Amino acid sequence: MKNLFANRVLNNDNSDLDNIFKNSANPANISFAGGFPDVALFPDTDLKHAYQTAIDQDGPAIFQYSSTQGLPALRQKLAQRMASHAGVMTTADNVMLTQGGQQAIDLVAKLLLNRGDSMVVEGPTYMGALAAFDTYEPTYYEIPVDDHGMNINQLRQTLQAHPEIKLIYTVPDFHNPTGTTLSAKRRQAMVALANQYDVMILEDSPYRDLRYSGKAIPAIKHYDTEGRVIFISSFSKILSPALRTGWIVADDDVMHELIGLKSAIDVQSPNITLAAINAYLDTHDIDDHIATINQAYRIKRDAMLKALDRYMPANVQYTRPAGGFFIWVTLPAGIDAKQLLNDVVLPQAHVAYVPASCQFASRQVKNAFRLNFTSLTPETITTGIKRLGNILQTSTAAVPAKALMPAIQF
Amino acid sequence: MKNLFANRVLNNDNSDLDNIFKNSANPANISFAGGFPDVALFPDTDLKHAYQTAIDQDGPAIFQYSSTQGLPALRQKLAQRMASHAGVMTTADNVMLTQGGQQAIDLVAKLLLNRGDSMVVEGPTYMGALAAFDTYEPTYYEIPVDDHGMNINQLRQTLQAHPEIKLIYTVPDFHNPTGTTLSAKRRQAMVALANQYDVMILEDSPYRDLRYSGKAIPAIKHYDTEGRVIFISSFSKILSPALRTGWIVADDDVMHELIGLKSAIDVQSPNITLAAINAYLDTHDIDDHIATINQAYRIKRDAMLKALDRYMPANVQYTRPAGGFFIWVTLPAGIDAKQLLNDVVLPQAHVAYVPASCQFASRQVKNAFRLNFTSLTPETITTGIKRLGNILQTSTAAVPAKALMPAIQF
């Protein structure tokens, strides 16, 4: 039947990634590949009670069709949280609940992108976002990321050179995969550029509340003056990914169309889940739960950084994130992290990571990889990084040190 | 920001439908517009226990990321049910769980349709499917429906005349909106035509188990010899729509791509919900529950048919469905059911229905409407149809009787 498939599918090949995750699921390996929260931190008993409470409170009506935009009481709570935790003044009418942050990305892509339309992504960027965007067949422009997030000078040059660009996609807080955070000054500059060049910004911030050191920075949407910023986040990292519940904050015109698109995609999110989350928030301070998570993740991050400091060869560089899930490791130029993974790291060190190439829209950068530190214990992290460091001592011995971030090829 | 929206959004206008559902939510009106199950028939206590059981059994792991294809135990049960209830021999590997039947439609559209690609729909058809397909900007060919489902002679002529057609979308069982069922002979003929003209068939069958009289017919996929039929169904009508859980049955190549697309759309369906449905099925015979539903819906259908027989003018025709949710009413040619609704039926009779135009891809047929009988009591149905009949006696008095199904304009 392949002759009947659409181009968006024929152009797509995720077999590399499938193999990585298949190998990383092998219990013989220590996997830093996934982006999983620690299962020990889920408030499972509280959530079980929240489901019961929600069903008891609403009765049979909870099982009926409800609104596409999602439970008003939960949207109201999120609107308040956007003000208190992200500096974004909004209303429940400007919040929509989605199937995780991933559906929010898909919806925004569907709203904006005709085939061939131009957009900006970070290089590297969240590979799940690339998978979503890929199905709309855009033209990508890749902007490098440094310790303060997306390089704004390069963004300016790119917008100037390509006035047809419609969308900037960014993960500003504890960026997936580098862990870096966009500075307040750059957030303001990004909004100014969006205004100047008539571009929308998709601010994807699922890790925002997972800060282990330093002070929070207002969301990009805080600086939005023309309704150009669409903010998305999720309960996946702060409560549970199996809830599949995220949210979008957008101004009226954009929200109206997003509701229409979601209605055509899946009618609405499961009302029972939304009511359970709402019941959980009614009886628990989620910030207490987040503080517990952050304490545990801070210890894991510190364990990974300490092990990297101890075991990595001098010609290997890595980021030092203040929060989130990931550390980004850059190998000397010329080393292909994917080939190294398959030929040496997996078979000999029994360690898995996500190689750079599938995290760049251009697929051109090869000498880097992503490590996750949230899903393993500090002891396993130390063991795995030691194994990885030892094998990299051998594999990278002949190659000199290189700049922190790989150069991007347009 | 409208200048930045994609064509798929700019071409879309659902404001008519929004207004209809807004008016029909007004408690002063009797609404036959929605496609809602009867809230009194939800097994709410059993489902509440199923959530508890699922969370107790799986522990914290139930809250972690899981597979895109969905819980294997539930897919296994559905594979067995496909054999016993639809004559379809399949395996758990060929079943994927989705966010209701609606996401299954969106996924198949995304798999097959490039902008401008040609497809066949019934005229009339499920308006939610049109909303999903519309976002892929296909070229529609509309085939009329009679008492035995899609007209196969017209399908043959259309496929012959337009060899570029890739997809046939059909609701074969208790069709939304007409309530008619595709005969076994036509199912076989449709598969033969798909083989001959290299076309896929999307068999959308959410009402299949809701039969109130007559004998079940095997699914179209039962007759599939070349992996051309993608079967989709849902728990929305037999258990609860708020679970947002449907399923797709497809052969290997198609399934592989659908899993990749779903991963990019929302990663996976909520594992807690899937585990709860699985726990419900472990401890209850869903066929007992379906028998209870069918008994109640049979009474409602009979009440509506009896009231139609009694109160409708002679120049108004309607279908007599053997199951499902809907009856289709055809007015004399020349009457615009939407205009009639807004000008007379809603303001004077305080009754709502869904006018024909938004249920035809062509938007050309106007003299018909859809009635739902599942969500109201027999008494309210009788009252509403009496009011509707009385007002139609006046409104259609001058117009002669017409054939059952409206003629289709290509």
TrEMBL record, chains A, B:
InterPro entries per record: Aminotransferase_I/II_large, Class-I_PLP-dep_aminotransf, PyrdxlP-dep_Trfase, PyrdxlP-dep_Trfase_major, PyrdxlP-dep_Trfase_small
Domain Aminotransferase class I/classII large per the UniProt entry, residue ranges: 46-388
CDD domains: AAT_like (cd00609)
Cofactor(s), names only, from the UniProt record: pyridoxal 5'-phosphate
GO molecular function: transaminase activity
Keyword Transferase: yes
Keywords: Aminotransferase, Pyridoxal phosphate, Transferase
Pfam family, one: Aminotran_1_2
Family matches, as PANTHER family: AMINOTRANSFERASE, KYNURENINE_ALPHA-AMINOADIPATE AMINOTRANSFERASE, MITOCHONDRIAL
The name this protein goes by in its record: PLP-dependent aminotransferase family protein
